[in-house]
Write a structure and sequence with these properties.
By secondary structure, the protein is an alpha+beta fold. It has two domains: 70 residues, Urease metallochaperone UreE, N-terminal domain (HSP40/DNAj peptide-binding domain), CATH 2.60.260.20; 62 residues, 2-Layer Sandwich (Alpha-Beta Plaits), CATH 3.30.70. The protein has two helices and ten strands; from the N terminus they run βββββββαββαβ. Strands 8-9-7-10 form a four-stranded antiparallel β-sheet. It has a three-stranded mixed β-sheet with strand order 1-4-3, with no helix packed on it. A three-stranded mixed β-sheet has the order 2-6-5, with no helix packed on it. Strand 8 and strand 9 form a beta hairpin. It is elongated and about 55 Å long.
C-alpha cells in the first residue's frame, strides 16, 4: 500500500536495478519545492526541499530498495522556432531572452520556449516561423531568470 514519504533533499543514490517511477513535471512544477506530489504508483512524496532548490529533469527525488522516483519533463505548450541559420537562431534567442524567458535549443537547431502570447506575438512580428507544439520543455520557467 502506498504511503507518504517526506523528501527534505533529493536522493544521491545510483538507480541501478531499481524500478523507475517517473514523476512528469512541467517547468512550473519543477520550481515548486514544498508541496505534495502523487506518483503514478500512488505513493505521495511530501516535498520539503530547502528554499532555492531546483528540481531537475533526471533527478532522483527519493529511492528505496525497490524503486527510484525520478523527475521527467511533462509535455506542455511551447513555441518552436525553426531558424534558417545561426544568425536567425541568435536573433530568436536574443528576442526571447530580452523578455526574460528561457530557451531550450534542440540538437537540430530548433529554438523552443514556453508558450506565452507576448513571446509569440513578438516572434511573429520579427518574421520568425513559429509553431505551437505540445512537448517537453527542459528550460526554466518564468521567474527563475537571473542576471
Amino acid at each position: 500500500m502506498p504511503g507518504v514519504i517526506r523528501v527534505e533533499r533529493p536522493s544521491d543514490v545510483e538507480i541501478g536495478a531499481r524500478e523507475r517511477v517517473l514523476l512528469a513535471l512541467d517547468a512550473h512544477d519543477r520550481r515548486r519545492v514544498r508541496r505534495r506530489l502523487e506518483a503514478p504508483d500512488g505513493t505521495v512524496l511530501e516535498l520539503a526541499l530547502p528554499t532555492g532548490s531546483v528540481i531537475r529533469v533526471g533527478q532522483v527525488l527519493y529511492a528505496d530498495e525497490r524503486r527510484a522516483y525520478v523527475v521527467s519533463a511533462a509535455a506542455e505548450s511551447t513555441l518552436v522556432v525553426r531558424p534558417r541559420d545561426l544568425r536567425e537562431a541568435a536573433r530568436a534567442g536574443h528576442l526571447i531572452g530580452n523578455l526574460h524567458r528561457d530557451v531550450d535549443v534542440l540538437d537540430d537547431g530548433r529554438v523552443v520556449a514556453l508558450h506565452d502570447d507576448t513571446v509569440e506575438t513578438r516572434l511573429r512580428a520579427a518574421g520568425f516561423d513559429v509553431e505551437r507544439e505540445e512537448r517537453a520543455f527542459l528550460g526554466r520557467a518564468p521567474g527563475e531568470h537571473a542576471h
